Amino acid sequence: MNLAALPDRRAAAAPHAPAVADDHTDLDNAAFLDAVQRAAGALHERGVRAGDVVGIMLPNRAAFVTALFATWRLGAVATPISPTLVAAEVAYQVADAGAVVLVVDRDVETAVSVLHVDDMAGEPRTADPVVGNDDDLALLIYTSGTTGRPKGVMLDNANLNAMCAMVIEGFELTETDHSLLILPLFHVNGIVVSVLSPLLAGGRTTIAGRFNPATFFARLESSRATYFSAVPTIYTMLLGLPPEVRPDTSAVRFAVCGAAPASIELLEGFEKRYGIGLVEGYGLSEGSCASTGNPLDGPRKVGTVGIPLPGQEIRIVDLAGAEVPRGELGEVVIKGPNVMRGYLNRPEETEKTLKDGWLHTGDVGRFDEDGYLVLVDRAKDMIIRGGENIYPKEIETVVHQVAGVAEAAVVGRVSGLYGEEPVLFVSAHPGAELDVENIAAHLQASLSKYKLPVDITVLETLPKNPVGKIDKPSLRKTLTTTEPRI
Questions:
Q1: Which of 76, 312, 377, 443 could form a disulfide with 336 if both were Cys (CB 3.0 to 4.6 A apart)?
Q2: What is the third-level CATH fold of 3-278?
Q3: What are the pLDDT digits (tens) for 130-151?
C-alpha cells in the first residue's frame, strides 16, 4: 500500500466516514484529505521535494497526522521530534537528520525553515501523491539515547507496510476499529499501532491530548474506542483511581501494554477491575515497533511478551551467534521485513546491530515450553558482582510480586570490593505504603544471596525517558561509589 495515497483512497471510498479526531478537531475522510493537501501545499512552497526530510515537532494533535501524510505526499521523509526537547537537542536532531523544514506550533530557534501549524491551511496541492519505491525512506525515528547521542532509525515504506500488516493481522483490526491514542506521536508505537494500522484497516483514530488519569475514562467512553496502547505507568495510575470510578468499557476489545515490565498484580488487577484484557508485547524502533505479542484469542501468559508476530522470526543466540536450545538464555535476534535499513550516518553501529539480516536487540531472553518469549534483561544492564552475572530484570520480577509495588528498577553501583553491586529503586501503587524490610525479606526468600540488592530506595515515582520507559541512566547518576567492605 502506498501510504502517501491512503487519504485519497479513504476519501474516494467513504468521504463522510470518520478518519482522525483530537480534542478540538474531527475530520472525516474528505476533510482529512483536504487538510493533507493543504499542508502539502505549504511544505511544497517552502521547498520540500522528494527525498527531503521534514521535522515534525508537534504535541499529540490531528495536525501531526496531517503533517505526516503531507510529507509523504511529496515523497519526503518525516522525522518526529519530541516537543519536550530543549533547543540544543532539537538542533542536534534537525542537523543529524538533515531536515529542511521544521513543523511547529510555537516559536523556536532553528537553522532551517519553519512551518507553523496555523500556516498549513493555505492553498491545497491537488497533484497526485508521489509514487515512491518500497525502499524509499519514510520515517527517521530517533532512539531515546540512553547510551550517548540519539540515533536515527531508518524505516522505509516496506518496513511500515509490513509492520502495519502484522499489527492488523495480530490484533484482527477491521473498519469497525477505533484507536484512542494516548502515547506520544513522536514515537513509532503511537504512529504505527494507533494511527497507521487502524487507518489502513479502514478504521479511525482519536488523539487524546495530555494524559490525565482523572479524565481518561470519560474520553474513552465518549469516543467508544475499541482499543488503546499504553505503558505500565499509565495502567498503574488508572488502577489507582478511587473505587467509585466505574467506567463503561463495553466498547473496548483489548489494550496493549509495552515498553516496560508490568507486574502480575497490575495486569490481573486492571483486567479484573475494568474488564479490559491487557496484551503484553515487545518491540524496538529498529523493528518498526513490535515483534511479539500475547495473542488475542490464545493463552495470554503473564510474565511473557508473547509469541512472534506473523511474518517475523525470532531466535535466541549465544555470543557466537549460534541458536541455543529452547529454555536457555541468550540474545534475542529478530528477522523480518519490518527490520530497519540501519542507523542514519552510522555504518559502524549499523554493522554491529544488523548481521546477516538479523537485528541484534541487545536483550537477553529465552523461549518457554510453549514458545512464548520471556525477557530477562538488557545485555548492557547486566551487573557483574565479584564475577557473578546478575540480570536486574530477574530481581525486578521478584520485587513485582510484593503487594503494593508499582515500579521497580535495579541498577549497578560501583563497588570497590566487588566491582558492581545491585541497588533497588521502587515506587508504590497509589494509596499503598511500602515497607523496605518486607521487600528485603521477600527477596531473601526468593533469590540467591549474591543477587540481593545492597540498598532499597522508595521513591514517589521512578524517572522516565520521553517514551515512558524507566530512565535507568538517571538513577545511576544518583549513585556514588562504595568503599570496600571487608
A1: 312
A2: Rossmann fold (3.40.50)
A3: 998 999 999 999 986 544 578 9
